[in-house]
Design goal:
Layout lengths: L2 H10 L10 H27 L9 H40 L15 H11 L13
Helix pairs in contact: 1-2, 2-3
InterPro entries: DUF805
Pfam families: DUF805 (PF05656)
Keywords: Membrane, Transmembrane, Transmembrane helix
Length: about 140
């Protein structure tokens, strides 16, 4: 599965909890989301560092040209995170099925620190069919 094809599939199958997803589909989507979030952060940094020094009298301008745009970008970034929550959950369930694990293992992510490491290891496992044969060469 290609880079852009994986991201399109991510949004097309946003509530598909039944099929399987290869490793490439999962990691390309993780890369896409990391790039998008990095762009949000870069935009915030541009807003912070391009504003000049404001004196006490210009505090209102500081809020209009710096604080409000940063809050707007943070709001959009939070909405993007909310929009990606269920599709990412379904992609992780499909990835677990592809590595021949129970979808209920997704609940291991709720364990602080250790759970996210376990989920990361499960997402890295190769694809297997129901008979245990490995499809990754």
């Amino acid at each position: 599965m290609g880079f852009s094809e994986a991201y399109k599939s991510f949004w097309r199958n946003y509530v598909n909890f039944k099929d399987r997803a290869p490793r490439s589909a999962y990691w390309y989507v993780v890369l896409w989301n990391a790039i998008i979030v990095a762009l949000f952060h870069i935009f915030i940094l541009i807003l912070v560092f391009t504003t000049g020094p404001f004196t006490g009298k210009d505090l209102e301008l500081f809020f209009y040209f710096t604080v409000f745009p940063i809050l707007f970008v943070l709001l959009v970034m939070g909405l993007y995170g909310l929009a990606c929550f269920i599709p990412m959950l379904s992609l992780m369930v499909r990835r677990l099925r592809d590595s021949n694990k129970s979808p209920w293992f997704i609940l291991l992510g709720l364990i602080p620190f250790v759970g996210s490491i376990i989920i990361l290891v499960f997402m890295c496992l190769p694809s297997e069919d129901s008979f245990g044969t490995n499809y990754d060469f």
